[in-house]
Amino acid sequence: MPPRSPKGLPRPHDLIPLIMIFNIHHTGKDAAGHLLLHLFLVFAIVIAVSVPQKVDAQRSKPVYQTDFSSKDYVDTAAPMIWLDAHMLYQFPLGELRTMFKNNFAVGPGFTFKSKKNWTIGFHLDYMFSANLRDPNFFNGTLANENGIVIDMNGLVSNGGIRAEGRYWTVQAEVGKIIPVDRWKNSGIWLRLGAGYFSHRLRLDDYSKQYPQLDNDYAKGYDRRSGGFVLNQFVGYHFIRKNRMLNFTVGLEFQEMWTKPNRNYIFFEGPTADMPAKFSGLIGIRAGWNIPLYEQKTTTTFYYR
Hints:
The protein is mainly beta. The chain contains 3 helices and 12 strands.
């Protein structure tokens, strides 16, 4: 027996016997009625042919996947813009290491990512809590050769001066995110950057008993310097489809060549002929990303 169509409707060839029977029993009858019955049968055949096509179209209709936790979901790389707030813990090298211990840094950043996962951005870092490495650093300047500081009253200081390193840097960067799984906006992030770096010695006179640190005199002691800096970063950028959990973590390397930008350093003299000195920083960087813009994309799955 020929197969039936969906929902029990007859196939076109199922109606052929009916047409033959009609022709046998209605020969010689009224021509108009004969024509109407033929049209009815033709109409039935058209319906029988069209119904399976309609069902097939419904079966091939696309179904949009929105279950981001599904293992079948594949994220699509998309253009994005985000801000970030980051923090670093850094280890100094070179000239900075002769003066300061390890330090912290915080700052904001801005990044644009293309559909091909190329990135361009900039960031600002402010570095603090770099304590002096040498406790006798001021001997012969603020202190005498024995490390004793005399205040404005001619008395021995009891610790009214606090000194620590302060740095800041602004840099522009280009990079590339290399996906390692189905989340195409996440992956290993490689960056190269360049900018300006400045560092100085911050001196705080809590007791207000040291006239040598008043007003412009303090500039002769702060050793402020600045210059060109290079930056390299390798880490992991993590972002998921719901865009709620977004962070970056990795290692950062900086190399800078700085010269004094004060005209004079006490007990060292004029700075015009002093050469640039090399310093470096190795840091652990972690940041939280705040999405500002994303070009929407749709991933479609077809089920048969």
